[in-house]
Design a protein that fits this description.
Order of helices and strands: HEEEEEEEEEH
Helix content: under 10%
CATH architecture: Beta Barrel
Distance between the termini: 35 Å
Number of strands: 9
Number of domains: 1
CATH topology: Porin
CATH class: Mainly Beta
Shape: elongated
Strand order of the largest sheet: 1-2-3-4-5-6-7-9
């Protein structure tokens, strides 16, 4: 019985349907093109000890919804890669907002940034049209202007951070992918603050949460252009093993 069961399992594996690759570069599409990514931001407050000297006042921090927009380009690795399948880089605008209340006094901050980002992305295919994307990236943010009452003077003009991102993607049609993602920093280098991933504003700390919907378009090869072909049997085997399958 055990032998029969093992033979049956082997046959099921042999005839198990394999997912159709999300991207098929058989001479039709290029390995690079552009993307657009609108989204929302939220500053998640973190509870911290009261830092007001000689005061028993209660600090109550709250996040506020704001918005972001990014545009950029991507490049799919020709050989599929061992860990990451493609990279992307972009530039955009980001607003972060929150508030802090101490007794009856309420302070609000609204920060607008010009932001640049870079990501390395891994694709885990679930079906012919659905997949999970995990990303490791960095962003550099330059503060364009800031308003609030009172002015939050303890924030820097320039912020450099490393972030993690996870998304659930859909292949809507042959040339369009839609990927909702959630992003948050895990290490901030400037303003340093001992490497914390949360941002210190007023007397509180906040974690940026960034929800984006990425629209990625494939680009067809123009007439007379040759596809970026795999150059060896080893490259082809790696492609079949790793490349968005």
């Amino acid at each position: 019985m055990i032998i029969i069961s093992e033979i049956g399992n082997s046959q099921m594996k042999m005839y198990q349907r394999k997912n159709i690759p999300l991207v098929d570069f058989n001479g039709t599409y290029q390995l690079q093109n552009f993307y657009l990514s609108p989204g929302l931001t939220f500053m998640l407050p973190h509870e911290i000890p009261n830092v007001l000297t000689n005061s028993n006042s209660e600090i109550n921090a709250n996040g506020r919804l704001a918005y972001t927009f990014e545009a950029g380009a991507y490049r799919i690795f020709e050989k599929g890669g061992n860990i990451f399948n493609y990279l992307d880089y972009g530039i955009g605008f980001k607003k972060l907002s929150g508030s802090e209340q101490i007794n009856e006094s309420k302070s609000i901050f609204k920060q607008r940034f010009l932001t640049g980002s870079f990501n390395l992305n891994n694709i885990w295919q679930l079906s012919d049209r659905k997949f999970i994307q995990t990303s490791l990236g960095s962003n550099i943010d330059f503060k364009l202007f800031e308003d609030g009452s009172p002015s939050p003077n303890n924030t820097d003009k320039l912020t450099l951070a490393f972030h993690l991102k996870v998304g659930y993607g859909f292949k809507v049609k042959k040339t369009l992918f839609i990927i909702p993602t959630m992003e948050s920093p895990f290490l901030s280098l400037k303003k340093w603050e001992q490497g914390k991933s949360t941002y210190g504003i007023f007397n509180s700390r906040y974690r940026p949460l960034i929800f984006k919907v990425r629209f990625i378009w494939l680009k067809k090869l123009g007439k007379g252009k040759c596809p970026e072909a795999l150059t060896s049997p080893e490259d082809k085997a790696r492609y079949e093993r790793n490349y968005m399958q």
